[in-house]
Amino acid sequence: MKIGIIGCGNMASSIAHSIKQSIGAQLFCYDIDTDKANRFSQVYGAIRMNNEIETVESSSIIIIAVKPKDIFDVLEKIKDGISEKIIVSIVAGISISKIKEVIGDKKIVRVMPNINISVQKGVMGICFSEEVTNDEKEKIINLFKSMGEVIVTYEKYMDAITAIFGSGPAFVAHFIESFVDAAVKLGFPRQESLNLILTLFEGTVVNMKNNMLTTQQIKDMVTSPGGTTIEGLVEFERRAVKGAIIDGILKAFERSKNIL
Ligand SMILES: NC(=O)C1=CN([C@@H]2O[C@H](COP(=O)(O)OP(=O)(O)OC[C@H]3O[C@@H](n4cnc5c(N)ncnc54)[C@H](O)[C@@H]3O)[C@@H](O)[C@H]2O)C=CC1
Ligand SMILES: O=C(O)[C@@H]1CCC=N1
């Protein structure tokens, strides 16, 4: 499989790392920033191309991994070389119909991954334009399945997937950070606390998954009547922590709907 990547930033690196670990496809890459392209090429064994159109010509699947403000420049440059090739956009908030306005009725796939694909633990939404055949859909789904869990969905759900799963790792990191700050406030060193708190999060997740526990069951098992945990939970409720988290995710959702 020949995969071209346009834009060699954070997400492209996560994708390339995962592809290298799992399926070992031949990679071609281009970035407007030559230093970034060179580094990417060295780290992931990708062949560096001189421009966007060369990248398209060398590949059968082309992943566009630039920021939303840059995608239309890229599409303008590649539109005449696409033909029957598959364009995969991971760009947040840019719909298939917006992409078609520039390149026409081509085979287009929208994927909303998250950075956890670099450790094969991504959760990603995928939707297709009607030009993509069933065989091609299967090929793309299998490619991304090697990076984590795939939700094949309708495009109308992509903004929600962006807010929950695309942005999710940053939100989770923010919660982890609040635990670490609390540990530091209580006199523990930051690095050691971070490692232990990562085990706390991981342990809770593995416990819930292995024993099929709900969040309520975990809370019931931990919260002794008149004990310490209920003091913390009551304070979280008083400060509407859950409401603030939901509102934060809804803000990300609104932004995904109106990114440009
Ligand atoms: N970072 C994340 O966690 C996620 C990001 N996304 C989406 O992925 C896309 C990329 O995000 P990041 O990797 O975080 O951004 P980034 O800023 O790390 O990478 C973007 C790269 O595109 C390059 N670039 C800009 N214009 C270009 C052009 N005309 N031709 C070639 N390269 C060009 C930049 O030099 C840069 O290296 C964004 O559209 C974002 O919405 C989607 C899911 C998660
Ligand atoms: O913050 C962003 O816009 C991108 C999309 C999802 C994660 N990062």
TrEMBL record:
<feature type="domain" description="Pyrroline-5-carboxylate reductase catalytic N-terminal">
    <location>
        <begin position="2"/>
        <end position="93"/>
    </location>
</feature>
<protein>
    <recommendedName>
        <fullName>Pyrroline-5-carboxylate reductase</fullName>
        <ecNumber>1.5.1.2</ecNumber>
    </recommendedName>
</protein>
<dbReference type="Pfam" id="PF14748">
    <property type="entry name" value="P5CR_dimer"/>
</dbReference>
<comment type="similarity">
    <text>Belongs to the pyrroline-5-carboxylate reductase family.</text>
</comment>
<dbReference type="InterPro" id="IPR029036">
    <property type="entry name" value="P5CR_dimer"/>
</dbReference>
<dbReference type="InterPro" id="IPR028939">
    <property type="entry name" value="P5C_Rdtase_cat_N"/>
</dbReference>
<comment type="pathway">
    <text>Amino-acid biosynthesis; L-proline biosynthesis; L-proline from L-glutamate 5-semialdehyde: step 1/1.</text>
</comment>
<dbReference type="InterPro" id="IPR000304">
    <property type="entry name" value="Pyrroline-COOH_reductase"/>
</dbReference>
<keyword id="KW-0963">Cytoplasm</keyword>
<keyword id="KW-0560">Oxidoreductase</keyword>
<keyword id="KW-0641">Proline biosynthesis</keyword>
<dbReference type="InterPro" id="IPR036291">
    <property type="entry name" value="NAD(P)-bd_dom_sf"/>
</dbReference>
<keyword id="KW-0028">Amino-acid biosynthesis</keyword>
<dbReference type="Pfam" id="PF03807">
    <property type="entry name" value="F420_oxidored"/>
</dbReference>
<feature type="domain" description="Pyrroline-5-carboxylate reductase dimerisation">
    <location>
        <begin position="155"/>
        <end position="258"/>
    </location>
</feature>
<comment type="function">
    <text>Catalyzes the reduction of 1-pyrroline-5-carboxylate (PCA) to L-proline.</text>
</comment>
<dbReference type="InterPro" id="IPR008927">
    <property type="entry name" value="6-PGluconate_DH-like_C_sf"/>
</dbReference>
<keyword id="KW-0521">NADP</keyword>
